[in-house]
Design a protein that fits this description.
Rossmann fold, seven-stranded mixed beta sheet
């Protein structure tokens, strides 16, 4: 099953993220794919805000992983991972990512998931961000078994 959303502004992208947030549960994994500047971090900002976290939400490109505590009854934390800078799958072990993926109280969001996708053993949702005309974006949401 696939759903598509068109976003014309960063604010719209955040609203779409808030809609998607309503469908998520603890233990879910989201993979975000798209070119640099396509709206992945803006989407994460909207998602994290929807779970009532009010601190800054930044791309973890250099930190590789950011964790945001929430006041949600079941999703106690959002783990935001950016694998852009990793060269190969062997570097995944240093992140304790398996532990995060198995945490029943976490929502895990992975940008640039190409190294992790072949290794994941649980269902996940992939959101692809594509550029359209006039700064618009197309978000395609697909669920994988």
């Amino acid at each position: 099953m696939s759903m598509q959303y068109r976003s014309n502004t960063p604010e719209q992208t955040k609203k779409i993220a808030a809609e998607v947030a309503q469908t998520l549960k603890a233990g879910d994994v989201l993979f975000l794919e798209g070119n640099l500047g396509s709206g992945k971090t803006t989407f994460v900002q909207g998602l994290v805000e929807a779970f009532r976290y009010d601190g800054p939400v930044r791309s973890p490109t250099f930190a590789i992983m950011n964790v945001y505590p929430t006041s949600h009854p079941t999703i106690q934390k959002i783990v935001h991972v950016d694998l852009y800078r990793l060269a190969d799958a062997s570097e995944l072990r240093t992140l304790a990512l398996e532990e995060c993926l198995e945490d029943p109280n976490a929502l895990v969001i992975v940008e640039w998931p190409h190294l992790l996708e072949p290794l994941i053993k649980k269902p996940y949702t992939k959101i692809t961000f594509a550029f359209l005309e006039n700064e618009a974006r197309l978000l395609t949401i697909e669920k994988y078994p």
